[in-house]
């Protein structure tokens, strides 16, 4: 009863959305620097506690009320060593308690982010992030272990979502931690006039002691009339994890892969390098566009071509390999007196088989069991709209979402198409698709510079029925 009252009170007074994912909003209260200001270290500590109550009836849901509590201690830091070298990071320790059973975690990445089971209803886990950049004049060198993001979408990125995370009803489980995992990476950025070139090499994880890698580069152009256009390429590969002989595809059986250094060379299209390696990797092409020609408005979109038979037939459903995903959206930002308003609407569509690969999990668009693109996964769509009003330290957000997710073969990240499967595809088959609507609200407050609170509630209607309530509060110094 106490926890239910706490949730209701927290929703009545609560805090800024996303603070758990974006601790950098809170200011650093402690700073160490030399007399010249060339060497600076800022750090801050945060303690917070959160509680959620979820009750859902639907696929894989038991219609029982689940109470989950998380206590967190976090140290964030940032600084510079001369004006050329900057760094930023955090370390965080979490303790989760729940009224449901927590299974054992054996630290294989395909089971999700690792945790330590302390008892049937308690677990602990930790996470760290570090990003660094060094300006060498003609380029910026970057690296660390952090989230890499590509794309312009606000709610559902389909290229690289980075640390973006939304709760989905099918995630209502203690089986795994649903957060995306940071990745070790290094790369560089070049800027020449209106052009920006970015390139990253990343280490992914699926099975212990087996390599999995990803490379991404993007060429962006700042065009007249406040238009931004980007073209990206991505490539994934790794050691085969399926048992020998289990994959009937002739090119998918029992291969080991090491890091391909040629992908690190800048300015070479990956499509040519893939041929150089024997045409055995999973490559993708992506585009993003942002048009801010009209004041206060942003019309944006991004598209991922995971595979295709030919560009002129990419929308042909008779070939399963025409795999694409797209998000289009509109955002309006303006101020009415002291109130900042933001309105956003997005539509996302992910075709069947997107992010999967016929050679198996070592080539799938995933790390730690999570999609690197949209968390909806293949064969899904979502229409999402939200309005947000901010006044001083108060932020109110209302949103509505309509989601459709297929569960048939071709709809899971690790579904593997073989030469014996149908060559066509079916988007959101009626007999196997779950549909629901989500109506949510978040009320957020920073009472002081060193304190924050957060509360939210969501109602689910459709094939998933029920609610989810969340509340959290913390201190930062």
What would your notes on this structure say?
With about 475 residues, the chain is mainly β. It has a single domain (about 15-435), classed as Porin, CATH 2.40.160. The protein is built from 2 helices and 24 strands. It has helices at about 1-15, 270-275; strands at about 30-35, 40-55, 65-80, 85-100, 115-120, 120-135, 140-145, 150, 160, 185-190, 195-205, 210-225, 225-240, 280-290, 295-305, 325-335, 340-350, 365, 370, 380-390, 395-405, 435-450, 450-460, 465-475. The strands form 3 sheets. It has an 18-stranded antiparallel barrel. Strands 8-9 form a two-stranded antiparallel sheet. Strands 18-19 form a two-stranded antiparallel ribbon. It is globular. The model is unreliable at about 1-25 (pLDDT under 50).
End-to-end CA span:
32 Å
Low-confidence stretches: 1-27
Shape: globular
Count of individual helical segments: 2
Fold-level CATH name = Porin
Strand runs, count: 24
Computed CA radius of gyration, to the nearest angstrom: 23 Å
Largest sheet: 18 strands, antiparallel, barrel
By secondary-structure content and strand pairing, the structural class works out as mainly beta
Give the percentage of residues in beta strands: over 45%
Secondary-structure element sequence?
A: HEEEEEEEEEEEEEHEEEEEEEEEEE
Domains (count): 1
CATH architecture: Beta Barrel
Mean pLDDT: 91
SSE order and pairing:
Layout: H1 2-13, E1 30-33, E2 39-57, E3 65-81, E4 85-98, E5 116-119, E6 122-135, E7 140-146, E8 149-150, E9 160-161, E10 183-192, E11 195-204, E12 212-223, E13 227-238, H2 270-276, E14 282-291, E15 297-307, E16 323-336, E17 339-350, E18 366-367, E19 370-371, E20 380-391, E21 394-406, E22 433-448, E23 451-462, E24 465-476
Antiparallel strand pairs: 1-2, 2-3, 2-24, 3-4, 4-6, 5-6, 6-7, 7-10, 8-9, 10-11, 11-12, 12-13, 13-14, 14-15, 15-16, 16-17, 17-20, 18-19, 20-21, 21-22, 22-23, 23-24
